[in-house]
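Example record

The entry below shows one chain as it appears in the dataset: sequence first, then structure tokens.
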Amino acid sequence: MYYSNITVIKKRRSDKVRLGLLLQPKILFILVLSAVLLINYCLQGQPGTLDSLWTVWNNSKLPDSNRVNALISIAEMGFINTNPDSANYYATMAIEYADEKGLMKQMARAYNVSGKALWKMRKFDESIEQLINAQAIYRTMPDSNDVARTFMNIGRCYFSKGDYMSAAENLKKAWSVFDEKAPSTDRSTVLNYLGMSNTYLGNFDTAIIVFEEQIELNRKSGDTLSIGKAINNIGTTYNYMGKTNKALDYFKKSLPIFEQLSNDRFLANTMGNIGHIYSTQGQSEKALEYFGKIKKVFEKLNNTIGLINTYGNMGATYYRMGEYEQALITQKKLIILAEKISSSRSLLTAYSAMAGSYSDLDSLTQALEYFEKSLALAIPVSAKYIMEICY
């Protein structure tokens, strides 16, 4: 997301009034936590597998438990990562069927899948309701890890809502309920979200302790990617503390891990963190070096949003360096991409930035043109943003 600080008009000593839009946009690179649910048994279904599952569900001669398990697997394996709305539809069917047949274990599992699908759909309150339903059933059963997983998933819902206090409370409950048989992937996920919740709550020392515990856990299990993410999260925490040099150390420690794993997504995020710190420290050449590397990664991934953010960072850096012509070139590239995906917020920021660059080049006609474009977008974008945060 971009943040702008706009000064509309400034006056020279010569009393010559000149339009100025002094924009200093910053792209805040915060480690993006994984958007994929890390429930250990969730796999992307293959067409042949789904066909077999449909065959089981449609065979009325098979035991009810087999049929409903197949329907739940259709929701989870076939749709949850690609079409969560459909996943929730089939999970709801499974809930109703399991309830009718008195299959409590399957009903709990279906509630859990529905909750995860609704989380993917960003319907957090509905997701929490379904996960609480699953938990109520799991509490009557012997495996405490199923109860712990519902606490984990509820915690992630609260985290996604921005309610980090409730997230931390549920994640701590999950951690306390897990037993020695709990998969390391689940425990690592809990520590990941618990650490970031504490970071956002300002409990920095606690966050770092949690991430260090996550690193130790992942070393034992051999989960190299999660080690890299935890190291990166420590860097993010130090960055929030204002200890940017320490943050740089940890970001750079995680880079070789992501390079070794050829994980372009986390590699780009980490280089973005490094570039942003260099930019705020006034080390513009180093910042541009990293932004250039990120650009190549996002071009490889065909990631338009990533490219927009990167051009925004590059333009802001050139602007701070006083290289207004180069800033304009970068901002124009941003506009092309923003128009491609109809991103009003990105266009608003780019128009404002271009107005500022033209103003400093004494190109007042062009500055006024882009200032007016930014004003035309400002009200609807602001109104939409207010609606989003209120509702």
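Notes for this example: The two ends are 20 Å apart (CA to CA). The domain at 35-141 is CATH 1.25.40.10 (Serine Threonine Protein Phosphatase 5, Tetratricopeptide repeat).
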